Amino acid sequence: MTSVALKAVNQYQSADNSSISYADPHELILRLMNGALERIAQAKGALKHKDTAQKGEFIGKAISIIGGLEGCLDHSQDSDLSQNLSNLYQYMIIALTEANVSDDIARLNEISDLLLTIKSAWEQIPEQARGTGA
User: Which structural domains are found in the chain, ordered by start?
Assistant: First the structure.
């Protein structure tokens, strides 16, 4: 696992961190996606409560996790797909930064929707193809 991906896993603080050691790469990516989605949801809650500090912290954590997802991409497997995902992750990072600055809940919703779409596709990967890289 790359240092960026390891940092993202560490950033994702789930209630059951002990199971991370035993998760396969496919499951780790799902956990990262879920972690980013949770942080965005928390940021939306903080925004609604006008808690600027918490909003910024949660968005920062989401950005870190998405950066970790980008770091997990294997450009040697399917360079077009991995480059498109890399571009999409970069877009998400920029959009989250802009949402943080402008308190734009619509941008947070947009990024949640994009992540949910990617997560849905990731969950559809057949079991036998899961070991071939992110």
Answer: 24-125 (1.20.120.340)
| pTM of the predicted structure, to 2 decimals | 0.81
Tell me the two tokens of residue 4.
């960026």
The band of 16, judged by pLDDT with boundaries at 50, 70 and 90, is: very low
The Cα–Cα gap between 65 and 51 comes to 21
Tokens 């989250």 belong to which residue? 96
Q: How far apart are the first and last CA of the chain?
A: 11
The backbone torsions φ and ψ at residue 49, rounded to the nearest 5 degrees and listed phi first, read -90, 5
> What number is the average pLDDT over the span 44-48?
97
- What angle (nearest 5°) sits at the alpha carbon of residue 134, between those of residues 107 and 15? 65
Answer for the pair 7, 32: CB distance below 8 angstroms, yes or no: no
CA pair distance 85, 108, nearest whole angstrom: 18
Rg value, the chain, Cα: 15
The closest of 118, 129, 40 to 85, measured between CA atoms, is 118
Exposed e or buried b for every residue in 90-125, given b needs 16+ CB within 10 A? eebbebbeebbeeeeeebbebbbebbeebbeeeeee
